[in-house]
Amino acid sequence: MALRAALRSRSGLSGLLSQRSSCSSDIRMCVSPLLVPQQRNYSTPPKIRVEFDQSTGVAVMHMQSPPVNSLSLDFLTELCISVEKLEMDKSCRGLIITSAQPKVFSAGLDITEMYGKSPEHCGAFWRSVQEMWLKLYGSNMVTVAAINGSSPAGGCLMAMTCDYRIMADNPRYNIGLNETQLGIVAPFWFMDTMKNTVGQRTTEMALQLGLLYKPADALKIGLVDQLEPEDQVIAVATQTISRWLAIPDHARQITKSMMRKKTIDKLTSNRESDIQFFVNFITKDSIQKSLGGYMEMLKKRRA
Amino acid sequence: MALRAALRSRSGLSGLLSQRSSCSSDIRMCVSPLLVPQQRNYSTPPKIRVEFDQSTGVAVMHMQSPPVNSLSLDFLTELCISVEKLEMDKSCRGLIITSAQPKVFSAGLDITEMYGKSPEHCGAFWRSVQEMWLKLYGSNMVTVAAINGSSPAGGCLMAMTCDYRIMADNPRYNIGLNETQLGIVAPFWFMDTMKNTVGQRTTEMALQLGLLYKPADALKIGLVDQLEPEDQVIAVATQTISRWLAIPDHARQITKSMMRKKTIDKLTSNRESDIQFFVNFITKDSIQKSLGGYMEMLKKRRA
Amino acid sequence: MALRAALRSRSGLSGLLSQRSSCSSDIRMCVSPLLVPQQRNYSTPPKIRVEFDQSTGVAVMHMQSPPVNSLSLDFLTELCISVEKLEMDKSCRGLIITSAQPKVFSAGLDITEMYGKSPEHCGAFWRSVQEMWLKLYGSNMVTVAAINGSSPAGGCLMAMTCDYRIMADNPRYNIGLNETQLGIVAPFWFMDTMKNTVGQRTTEMALQLGLLYKPADALKIGLVDQLEPEDQVIAVATQTISRWLAIPDHARQITKSMMRKKTIDKLTSNRESDIQFFVNFITKDSIQKSLGGYMEMLKKRRA
Predict the structure, then answer these.
(1) Nearest residue on chain B to C221, judged by CA atoms?
(2) Mean pLDDT, chain C, whole residue set
(3) Neighbour tally for A186: CB within 10 Å
(4) Residue B212 annotated in active site
């Protein structure tokens, strides 16, 4: 049943990325006197905007990299720095991750970082993807994903690192690890994260078929925990995180760490070989050709 | 959905332990000519009453340690001796565990065994908790929990060691590993037992939040297998166990042992370090202070 | 709930095997000009009939060993050779496994191969069971089980090796690993395969009780993925497999292999000891006596 529903709703990355032209900037500013935006020193517009409410100890991280919050090397570097700052700030106990772009949470890994690039560049890029996952999956903060748009591939991975996932109840959105649809393979730690979320069997089928689930189907298999009307997602995330923060930090953090340690250790102790594997795979002629064809198709759609 | 329902129903240990004053002695005696109560030689009233029906090969273990069947060192020692006797009696093939106290199955670990006690005492206590788990989770008998009251923390652990769980369908009762709510952490083998019962994702959320589930929610996530009217729980447990006993013992026992071996071996081979870890943790000033504050609160409620 | 439903529907192997007399030969031939039956050189009638449609890249393997597709040494040898041929044929990308016998998919391991046979014979037989599992669970092809009849024990194992399971929606059929009902034990790789399909808790209960599930219950626990009217099972399997084949082979195959590698490696590196364990177990007097009694009972039923 879930398979058939998911197959019907398969719109894929292509449908998503082609929305580039329709992207607008409806970022709602909601800075209150209590919110202390962190200082930044980038020459380009920041791709991440963090609002930290000292009265609650909760930071909201708005991803604002037009058009679709693609996970580029720059974006990931900025995101990791932001998370690390919050992690070291003892007054920050919770983190909500959401998107400031319309219709999309994050479209996943930026293909331009892997197409026609040197092995060195691909390796540095992959290290930053690993770093994002390690920082978020191993965070001491309570993390909640406020998934207010589609969230394929790396976007889904990012959402799965969180302690809780609330998704906008909009049937046009979808979420999943759809790598095989592009002819590539989700690495073992993507797999492990999904297995920890929805179990072995659902992961096996979802990954082989590169399934993207509509919100209602994602809820059914446990890929997200709760659906809310789109304009309520962040508000509900804020209420939810306050319940998690009622638990003593120390006990909650040790518990989280014990539950995830094995999965995290597996990447930590295989980090270099995982980079090597990715670089060898992605720089293959056949894979480059496939990525090139895919980007060409996207360009034509946009024209 | 499950989270929100569970959060609504969160009454916690405090609500439970404060019922001490209302505890009465409504233990229903149902000894038939076939039942052979085991001989006992304790100077204090026995905390465990075992009825063994030789005609069926099924023993019923009534926990009767007022007010709330707290797992004290004495209680656990008595329980382990009882289980061991039954295990060695080849005519005993099935065990039903239930409570003779009103409203509670077991309130879990006895805090007074960990507060203001010597490291030696804490270590001996912890060893007895391990022993209870090893004996029950590795039992060759068919074990069924007839959960006729609330079952937080160690009470939930005990229920989870069984092959099958039937809970009273009373929305005032709850079950779960709520350790984090008290600022402490469920050890790895509590975690493993819960993962084996409800899966990784549900365990991760339940343990971080210290969730206590109402019977209907516990059924939904698979923490219990069946709900029955309160006065039917033991009768249904008796019917259920007879179906399990229709399977040839030898094949069933090997199957059970193969399914649980890895989890049991993990504690067996880390038993001393687990005790050391517990003693170091529980004797910390901050944890002792937290336990003291909790006990003070309970005293005030009872007054 | 699931337990009670499954217990109600427990008809067991005996009911199944006793249908031998009613078996007819309603094998529907549906060879089209595109179908190229593979050449065979057996003196006895082939137990496996393969139809390969070059236009779709999909082979359909009809098991046709009267009366109930018991997994004998000959049957398994023929099946393994067929799978290997298809695996090496690069034009074959998908495999549907189904039964040409009425009312049964496969009744599982052939007891006559284990009763009154030499240790050498038992060992050779067990090796062929392992080989079947290794070939199917590790297949690079998309594999779909079109389960058009009952599927106990080894029949269930075979179905579980597939990527997707469609079962006839006939409440007279059942599926499950019911070994304990016969006094024997499903080996660790049967267990692992079931755990990968329905999770630890369901497997633990199903295997201890030797549960056979009706189609509706099998769907509920995830043992099968979809139910269809009996005469639609193969047609729907054909539609389903075409969706799986829309995914680039290379990415799908690596994904499948990564998801199953650990489970497969466990048998591969313990193959000889697993055979030794089986031979020691099955040649025991008590087990032989139990198998003998079971076969005697079947004979009487048929008379």
Answers:
(1) B222
(2) 88
(3) 26
(4) no
